[in-house]
Automatic annotation (TrEMBL):
<dbReference type="Pfam" id="PF00756">
    <property type="entry name" value="Esterase"/>
</dbReference>
<protein>
    <submittedName>
        <fullName>Alpha/beta hydrolase-fold protein</fullName>
    </submittedName>
</protein>
<dbReference type="InterPro" id="IPR052558">
    <property type="entry name" value="Siderophore_Hydrolase_D"/>
</dbReference>
<dbReference type="InterPro" id="IPR000801">
    <property type="entry name" value="Esterase-like"/>
</dbReference>
<dbReference type="GO" id="GO:0016787">
    <property type="term" value="F:hydrolase activity"/>
</dbReference>
<keyword id="KW-0378">Hydrolase</keyword>
<comment type="similarity">
    <text>Belongs to the esterase D family.</text>
</comment>
<dbReference type="InterPro" id="IPR029058">
    <property type="entry name" value="AB_hydrolase_fold"/>
</dbReference>
């Protein structure tokens, strides 16, 4: 059957859009007992002699396609954009699971330190699975990816936003050698500031060699801590933004870590954007930061 619009004629059925050179893997973790959905996209060009750099992306159900296409567009001219072709590995959950609650457990080192009135009762008691989740990535997922694809062990990137950004910092502080580049976009430091401050302090006391060759990019939107025309639309409004102090926390973490030997730290405040609208620029700048030739 055909549908005529007057200007053109369309079929009433259509095939789904498929992301080229990408595949989906259903993976069961024997270490944690959990099920994960892994999305993998290869570059358009063959792997170099040393293998592709690998970018591990959290919240892949939301951002995988954006990361893949941003990488592919820029990697066509790495000499001009500063982005090498990379293997993108997205981590998410099967449809049967509540992704919001799963991420609240997997991305956080502890449950919420204090009740958050804008959160559901389930979210207030969730959390504390970050070390188990890091074990899954480090000991199960990464060996699988290295076995299935041509990868460069010397260029391994972890990207996360919001609670995912908190997890990126947790991974850096607890296992700085797990990845070479860490991109923490709008990290939710407020989830448990005391615990994160303790982790940061212990990280700063490590020998310089433990941080050698590591790099961290922190990003945050200008309107994550000050009024914008969208501030009143979020749960809790400006009171929530003030309490979470996203911009102040990113500035403080950058200030504390920049003097450390062996660690390259950059911080980017994205003008005119809020917690969600800053994400596309965080992806773009994060890839340039981690995949420069």
């Amino acid at each position: 059957m055909m549908l005529c619009t007057g200007a053109a004629t369309f079929a009433t059925s259509a095939a789904p859009v498929v992301l080229p050179r990408a595949e989906q893997i259903e993976l069961h973790s024997t270490r944690t007992g959990d099920d994960f959905r892994i999305l993998v996209a290869q570059p358009e060009t063959p792997p170099p002699v040393g293998g592709y750099p690998v970018v591990y992306v959290l919240d892949a159900d939301l951002v995988f396609n954006s990361v893949v296409e941003t990488m592919r567009i820029q990697a066509r001219r790495p000499q001009a954009t500063g982005v090498l072709p990379a293997l993108i590995v997205g981590i998410t959950y099967p449809e049967k699971d509540n992704a919001i609650l799963r991420r609240a457990v997997d991305y956080t080192p502890t449950p919420l330190a204090a009740p958050a009135p804008e959160m559901s009762a389930a979210m207030r008691t969730a959390g504390g699975g970050a070390d188990r989740f890091l074990d899954f990535i480090d000991h199960e997922l990464r060996p699988l990816i290295a076995q299935r694809y041509a990868t460069d062990a010397s260029r391994q990137v972890l990207f996360g936003h919001s609670l995912g950004g908190l997890f990126v910092l947790h991974a850096l502080f607890k296992r700085p050698q797990a990845f070479t580049h860490y991109v923490a976009a709008s990290p939710s430091w407020w989830w448990n500031e005391a615990v994160m401050a303790e982790q940061e302090s212990a990280f700063r006391k490590l020998p310089d060699a433990a941080r050698s060759g590591r790099a961290l990019l922190l990003t945050v939107g200008e309107f994550e801590q000050q009024p914008s025309r969208f501030s009143d639309n979020m749960p809790g409004g400006m009171a929530t933004l003030t309490r979470r102090a996203m911009v102040d926390n990113v500035r403080a973490v950058a200030t504390h870590l920049k003097p450390l030997a062996g660690l390259r730290v950059e911080a980017l405040e994205i003008q005119g954007e809020n917690h969600l609208s800053s994400l596309p620029q965080a992806i773009n700048r994060g890839l340039r930061f981690a995949l420069e030739p």
